[in-house]
Structures are given as C-alpha cells and as structure tokens.
Amino acid sequence: MSQQKDPETGLFVDDPILAKIDNTLKNHYAEMDDFTMNVEDLNVHNYEKGFVPEVSDSLFQVRIKALDAQTPFEFAFNEDVLKYLHLFSKHRRTFTAIVLGRSELFFPLYEERLDKYDMPMELKYLSVIESALDPTAKSPAGARGLWQFMLRTGQSYGLDVTSYTDERCDPYKATEAACQYLKFLHKMYGDWSMALAAYNAGPGNVNRAIRRSGGEMTYWKIRDYLPRETQGYVPTFIAVTYMMKYAAEHNIYPRKPQARIYEVDTVQFNKSVSLDDVSEALEIDYEYLKYINPIYKTDYVPADKENKGFLYLPTEKIGKFMLNLDTIHVWKRDSSNQESFIAYGKVQTHTVKSGESLGLIANKYNTTIGELMTWNGMTSKTIHPGQQLKLHVPVRKQVDKTKPTKTTYKSSGGASQSNLPANKYIYYTIRSGDTLWDIANKKGVSVNRIKQLNRGLNERNLKIGQRIKIGVKA
Fold it and tell me: Which of 134, 323, 367, 435 has most Cβ atoms within 10 angstroms of its Cβ?
C-alpha cells in the first residue's frame, strides 16, 4: 500500500520530522502568546502583518548556493530540500517564529562551545531539529534535552542521570557533550554531513549504509540506504539553516522567549532546597524557574558541603537568594501521608556493617535507595562493610487534617476573611483525564477544600499542566 502524502506540505503524513514540528506547536511554551519582538526593526522589507511572500524555486536555489559557499557542509538543492523549505517558510511559520525566539537563550551558549572546539557554527541549528530548542524535550525512544541524548550515549559523555537530576537536560553540560560527540563522529567519517547522519541514526546504521552503497562515503550517496528519518535529516538541517538566515525575507520574526542568555546566571550553594520554596522566597514564577532549570526532575535540588548544588536564576535575584538561603527550607513529600512533609536537617554518617544492603539502610533511616545514591554520588547499589554513607536526617512535621491552619485578616473592603498562610501551599499538577473529584480522593482532601484554595478555578475546564493548591505545608 502506497504511503499517503499531506496535500499541504507534499510530505508523507507520517514523516518523522513533520511529527516533531507539530508536537512542538502543540506543546509550545507561553512565549507563543506574547507579541513578537522588534518587528519594526526586523521588518526591513516593510511587509504587511500576515503577508506571506512568494519565493521562486530559483531564488531558493541561489540563496542555498550562497550558504553552501560559506560552510564546510554540502548544501545541496533538490526536491527534498525544497519541500522542507516550503514547510518552514509557508506551512509551519509559527514553528519557525518560536525557535527564532528561543535561539536568543541558547545560541550564544552554542556559539561559545563551538568556537572552543573549532567546529562549524552551523551546528547550532542541529538542536532546532532535535528538540525545537526545548531543554525538556523527550522523544518516544527516551532521548532527552536540547541535543536529544539517549541515556547510554549521554553517560559516555559525562552526563549524569540520578533520581533527582538529568544532566541531558542541562543546556551547558549537554552542549559540551554534543560538541565532543559531534567532533568524534566527524573524525570517524571526515565529513560533517555524514557526522549529522551518524548523530541521528547512530554510527552502526551509517556504517551499514556505507557497505550497502558499495563503499560510498558521502551522505547523498548513502542516503537511500539510511533509516527513513535520517533520509530527511540533512535536508531538514539545510532548510532550518536557510530559515534562520532568511526569516525576515519571509516576513517571519521571533516569538518572545521566556528568557535570554544575559538574563540568567549560575549560583552555587551547599544546602538542599526546593524549587517551590525558591520560587516563593524570590517571588519568581514557578513555571519560569522550572523552564530555566530543566535538569531537575522534581522540586528537590540536592546539595551539601561536598557536593554543591546549583541553580540558574535571573541575575537580579542571585543576591536575594544568597541572603535568604538559610530561611529557604527544603520540603520533601512523605509518601505515607499527603499532608506530611520532611524538612531535611543536618547530615549524619552511617558506617556500613557486614550483611547490610542499601535497601536495609534506607528503611532504617526512613528514606529511599535513590536518595542514598544521590546523597553519596553513587552509580551502583553495591556497598561494602566499613563504607561511610552520608544521610540527611529528616525532621517530620505533621499537619492535623481535622484542624486546618487558618489566618484571619481584614480585606480592603473591611470584611473579615479566612485564608491560608501565604507561600505555604502544596501543589498538584493536573494530568490528562483528571477531575477535581479524582484529585481530592487521590490526595486525601475534599473537593470543597480545593475550591477554597483556588478561587475562580473552573472545575469543568481543568487544563493539563495547570498547578493547583491542594493543602498547606506544616
């Protein structure tokens, strides 16, 4: 049975590249709702808003030839490249605008690392194809981050994954790893387009394609023998490079991103914190804080004197963070009771005894194997007698569910109101299929309680990813 084509784009309806793009458009961040930046400055051709310029195939070809003269890549112009040029310039213009905006956060970092390794600057566009410049991106196969590393490949290039952190999602560390991996692949094949193919499909698939082609060593000669996604990979790379250079000629401008590289900086510390508490203490939007710190899987940011933690924060908030660090508590939910929390106190040491396992020690101290491994930088569960393990001693605080804490204050209208202490909330993130009744039963609270905590919440229109309050911290 012949494959069905999309009449709009001319691509097969199940084209893997098209699926990635449409998934980005479906799950894009809030920057799509913002007004585009600097349109008057960027609109050098004085196009009307919404106007889609017509570009002839011959002009596309001239521009691709100009790009080819400035790059070590082989920028061919053919029907497949043209399909993706039309895709980004006509049919998925919003995608192009979104990645143009996000590039302001990540491209300065990419360019710095590429320069360090003396690699082609065009490689920064590879991340557009891989993740649409979304540091939290996850593929169906399990690849993660801006550069879409699989677990084992990432680990082989120094990207650590624990119960709490995933360095594949760290823009700085993942970019460093991507440069090293791409340099290795280029050394293997001596050709940047072949290196791109190997990055997408793996060296094994590229080597098989070389054998099947009779020993050819260029991408366009082995292309028909590569996996289907990789056959469209380099044409997409060429089209993305073109669009990032000629966006204004197509009346496309950046969508405002959530952050820019010069607006954030790194802060290190030696005390575990929670993103929720940092958000409240520094008055930073929680979703924004998560966006600029995609490495953390949960709210918990592990740290101690020997293994410092780090956060990316708005530059103007770093001083306030350091001044308030001692008052920012780390809370971790106790799985036995939704309204019980653990405030981690000082560190103590446990000496492993003969016959003890990591699970036995975890149970003894009312913690988990994952936490023990994180606190001690372990990659294996293997322990031996005499080994010293660091433990964060928990101090439990219990909430009396029958007597919820309330604070009475005067509203601006003079009426006495009952409300909960500010900045002390427990949150729940709504998932697909959730109802208030489901959430209330799951979390051991009443529907009315949730409604009281979330004034104006529309229970008939709960949105996936929306965070609602379900209680207060002790």
Answer: 134
